[in-house]
Amino acid sequence: MKRLFDIVVSAIALVLLSPLLVGIAIAIRLESPGAVLFRQQRIGRDNTLFMMLKFRSMFDDQCDATASVLTTRSDSRVTRIGQFIRRNSIDELPQLINVLRGDMSMVGPRPHALSARAAEQLYWEIDARYRHRHAVKPGVTGLAQIRGFRGATVLTADLTNRLSSDLEYLRDWSMGKDMWILFRTIFVIRHDNAF
């Protein structure tokens, strides 16, 4: 049922948003040379790796495929279009293709890069429960996101707050909760921690 929901919602969203997607792609190409889409290896269900898609928001030669350097406010690597699409979560829209492919779900724990860190520690070094969040497909949005736990992970609490929400999502999952999280996402698309 969840997979059918993902296919229907992502396909409808891709069709309805296609004018916006084409417009953003053109704007990215006009501002700076390079690929329109940014591909980054992320951890998926059962710790399998997949290539997550995003609109490129940085200058092509400064993209960080391994996520070894966190993006900061006023980051010089981010283009003007990149600032706009990151601030409004538009850079995440190509993940609808990941959902259609079956790499991701509309709702679930957000996928992290392999080298993502908080307080100079890899995520799984901070909390042994971290691996449990990979029991399901990662999501375009999730419980942590609607609670405001997004953006750079500078402190260990930045990760543990997300992780607690992810584990709560796994424990209390229902299709009704997925639809509620999708609805609530509308209100957090633009967020101060998205930069």
Automatic annotation (TrEMBL):
Stored InterPro entries: Bact_transf (IPR003362)
GO molecular function annotations of the record: transferase activity
Keywords: Exopolysaccharide synthesis, Transferase
Keyword Signal applies: no
A Pfam entry, by short name: Bac_transf
Domain Bacterial sugar transferase: 2-189
Family: Belongs to the bacterial sugar transferase family.
Name used for this protein in its record: Sugar transferase
